[in-house]
Amino acid sequence: MPYPSSKLAVRDSFDDEDVSDDVEDEVFIRDGRNGFKVDEERGVKRPLMAPRRKSKSSQFHSEIGRNPPCRALCAPFCYGFIALAVLLGLILLVVSLVMWFPFPLDKVIKFWKVGEGSQLDSIIVPCTELVVEDVWTRSLPKLTVESAVRLNDVNRDGVMDVIVGYGTGADGHNVPNFMCTLYFDRKTPCLGGVIALDGLTGNTIWQHWTSHPIFTVDCSADLTEDKTSDCLISGKGGVLQLVNGHDGSNVWQFVEQVGGAELHGEPFVDIFSAQFIQDVDGDGLPDVLAAHTQDTPEGMKGCLVLISGKEGKFLQKVATPHQEETYYAPQVLVYLDGASIVMFGTGGQASPGGLYAVPLHQLVKGNMLEVQELYRDEAKGIMSPPVLADLNQDGSEDVVAAMFNSVVIAFNGLTLQPLWNVSFPGSETFSAPTPSYFNDDSIPDFLVKYQNGPGFPVYYSSQTTVLDGKTGTPLLDKPVVDTAGSQMGGLSISVEGLGNDLLLYWTANCLHHEGPTKPFSFMPGSSIQAQSRADLCQMLFNSTLSTQFVALSQHVEPPGIAVYSSEERRELEYNSSVNTSAQAHHYLDTHPDFLDAYRRNTVISNKKKEFEGDTTGASSFRHRGDDSVLGNNVKGKGSNYFYNEGDYLVANQGQNRISNDAGEQEETLASDFQGNSEYLNVRKHGGTHPLEQTWQQQGEEGSIPLTYTNLMGSNPGQNRDSDYEVLYGPMNAESLGGSQQGFPVDTQQEKRTVYRRVKRDAQHVHGLQRLTSLGTVAPPLRTSSNNDTIDLVLVTYWIYPMTEAQLVLGKYKECLEKKQTDINNANGKYHSFDAEMVAKDCFDYKWEEKPVDSVSGQFSLNMGQATVYRLRIACRCRSVGTGERCSTILPFDQQSWPEFMGHNGNGHFRPRNS
């Protein structure tokens, strides 16, 4: 019986091709009644054994072998060829468009990157406008500020308070004790200090006085373990102290041990610059690393000093290479493996120096054999600290340093080899680089400032630009040029999105005469201090100095948006100026015995000086071997080597000093008092003659003749004993502690109604503003819903200009330059002349000895005023379209460079998202 294949049925689980064509291979269970079924219902059950299956692939390949379809082979090749042709066509189209219609590719890149970091796919629009409003202001009469502003919550109210280091207009060398009584109504010390202002109101929380001005403040460590950070302060006159952050009291004061050798007088140069570093003595608390420069009988010498942070004890001291002076606090570069390298610079404005690195553990041991030299200049040193930031994205910080002598160099932090360098010929700088994300990449860029001219303090202009952190290439089309500039770098405000940061920096111009000045020089013999305090705008253009603190970004046209303008703040900044000359004269009028005691002491002091061979004549000129502007160099470091430090000019000559138990220097009374930080001696025909000392203020604007009239009609009531105590009394031990009284002139004297302060009319005061301090970005006191605000604390101050330094212009300048050339020429007509003789010949000016009238200067001292601002800055965008939003200012803890030398002032740049 044939196999009824037509009636054969299989289950759905079998594919047709899986079933063999040979039905004989299939064995089924048969239903006896109905015969074979063709479906489930007709009796097909489960096969007794699985059917034999033939390979599917074999069948397929056998079919291909029999009938090969060419279309199946060619289709993939056709599709690939079409895709390649389309791609090539697009490339040709783009190239053609670029050639026919040029368009900057950086604009295209910026378009794609502008939305980086956006939320909800919205595009970030950069901030192009700023709204500035006052939060509070505070006037500080008689103070100068040359330190950075720091933040520290000292009253524990959750708001960061403002810490400012300061000096006073009475500072000098061997300043007599009675100056504190005359001008500050307090006992010594009174020439410097640090003040804490309430962050909410600007009111004084505490004030700590010191014997000399403060240059550096570091409030980043709690050494007293009272949950309030303490402040390390350092500066001029050997001041190095730890101040309790909570109440301003003295925790410890470092007094350098001189060993068996006795000091033969107070050094003219004795400067500390210190900061906290990691624990090196094993007590679990941060320690202190300081740069120290001091003049000695052998010359200026610099060293690095390690001090215990807990107790102020000496740990280690090492000399710098070549024993060269060093003026800024060393920095610590930390590698990924935890190794710490100390970076420090040496040299001065007219003396050789370099940039060096030494392992911290070797420094702790006193071993300087592993010092590595990164840079060396045989003419000028390094006056500003470098920035530590990662430029090559290797995870380790690199080093960017602005050398005093016209060059900026970036070094690889691991190899200490140069990455790039940029030169600004014929320029000098005191300013540290300021890092920020200025362009659109993730590598910080650097704002730098350089002054152009013959050399400090004579500059014709200042230039500011921004360097690409990757290559050193300038990012501005042309630098910002102003008349004076500043001796400080800048700050940055970190804004959402790379390339949106704002750089804050100072500009200074003569009003209505912006830009560089014409070349000029000073009369030979003018002191460096008189030159640096000359009102050039008045002398050159009969104008005034106008300063601005501006904000610049790549989206804002240079020089930037003015955040502060001196022209708009004049009335406020002169509102509390005090006629200190009248104040001193009133004291003399009410204390008649004081002047008698002073004169007797002067006679005794002069007799002593005559016995020692000193003279009292003063020269209007300096010998040509000295550091004159005409020669513009320093020829050695002998007895008339001059050190220039900002406003401070000092000669290498010692004076007597007596130290008390507290370590503060108790000044002795002498007839030739020198104040306002000028310590200048000149050599005339082989003799040493002190110039007119800077206590003499006859040449300063605003001084008044010395007349002892009774200003308030009060009756003298003080006895002779109190006058002697003022003259010779020892320092009050409590003077090292904090004061809750603020400024005595503003409080104690007014409360006692001894006399009212004689205020000057702001419209009639002519001051000279100094740009020697940077402010700080601060957390906003009032936040906004858009996170578009941040606060800025800014400090300005002015002093009275000095008129002793006269400019040389026109034919007189040509005469001096010509004859100066002859002086330097061995065969020149005027080779045997000095600067005084040349000036006499050119100006027909008669040089003569002038007696020093120290009385007039000491009792006619004029001081300026400092002003502290707290400003609120809000970011605004000019236009915001659909799908866009204005960029926000990042929170304070995400700010990369909010204060001088970054967070905590240690030079470390805080990268984005760190």
UniProtKB/TrEMBL annotation:
Keyword Secreted in annotation: no
Species assigned in the record: Cryptotermes secundus
Coiled-coil segments: none
InterPro entries in UniProt: Beta-prop_FAM234A_B, FAM234, Integrin_alpha_N, WD40/YVTN_repeat-like_dom_sf
Gene3D superfamilies, alphabetized: YVTN repeat-like/Quinoprotein amine dehydrogenase
Domain of life, per lineage: Eukaryota
All copies of domain FAM234A/B beta-propeller, residue ranges: 148-474
Name by which UniProt lists this protein: FAM234A/B beta-propeller domain-containing protein
CC terms in the record's Gene Ontology section: membrane
